[in-house]
Amino acid sequence: MLGSAGAGAVGLDAEVDVALIPALPSGPSDDEGAALLEELLAAGAAEMHFQPIVHLASGETVGFEALLRGPAGGPVGSPLPLLAAARDAGKLAELDALCRASALDAAARSGLPDTLTWFLNMEPEAAVRFEPPTEPTAGLRVVVEVVERELGAHLPGVLGAVHRARTAGWSVAIDDIGAQRDPLVIAALTCADVLKLDMSLVQQPVGTRETYLLAAIRAYAERSGSVVLAEGVETKQQQSWAKLVGATYAQGHLYGSPGPLPRHVAAPSEPLPTGRSAVGQDVARGSMWTFGPTPVRPVPVVLPVGSPAASGR
Prior knowledge:
Blueprint: H1 31-43, E1 48-55, E2 61-68, H2 80-88, H3 92-109, E3 117-122, E4 141-147, H4 155-167, E5 171-177, H5 183-190, E6 194-197, H6 200-203, H7 208-224, E7 227-230, H8 236-244, E8 249-251, H9 281-285, E9 289-291, E10 294-296
Parallel strand pairs: 2-3, 3-4, 4-5, 5-6, 6-7, 7-8
Antiparallel strand pairs: 1-2, 1-8, 9-10
Helix pairs in contact: 1-2, 2-3
């Protein structure tokens, strides 16, 4: 997810999470990034910031997304050199796992209500080596996010990782949904519990394709039991639009920028309903079809009549 992040951020004041790695250009690693990577892996800890996720109807904070940052005040304030160094060194999976472990450790030590939900990113390129840690996840409500971009090239590994996440009791979210041509195919294959709308569908004027796409996402969510979360909400107008297109939850600078966890958050009266996807629940019951090593029974994707996709336009 991209959004204003304040001092130490990259480019357009952007906060960058580990799920953006596939979009980064390859090239020689930055010396500082490579050195910091080795330090982080040796220390076994990464600096994570957290952005609140809210329930649109009540305004209550229901969870946080963990985002990787370079050390505050250090030579690499942005995570970009760090992420590029991990890719170049073939240590993307190690950094990916370290980010999740560090976020879980911070969540477990925070003393915040156990009804909050924690969103952790999984890099598709590293998914084949994804293993949910057994500690300190006990008692935490966890959603693993898979970014839609570049997912197709790593689909078998992602599907295996999704199955392992569900076996551990975690739920699954598709991040930046709507950024690619066939987002609901990915949602169905991963049995997503949470559909996180790409911020372009929230922040920019929508045309015919986007209108039909939003209607299809809303219909899929209602059919499957998934919930819709709007990303990049920065204004009251965008908040109203998010509600109009069927989002129940939202994330963005209107509600808080990424940063250290607060000392106090009120327990939400209605926790984010993780694990309610009708298809995702079948994993526990063992009533899934098999796709390679991974159980899959996709929900049929039904597009609105007359949509460009449905009519072949």
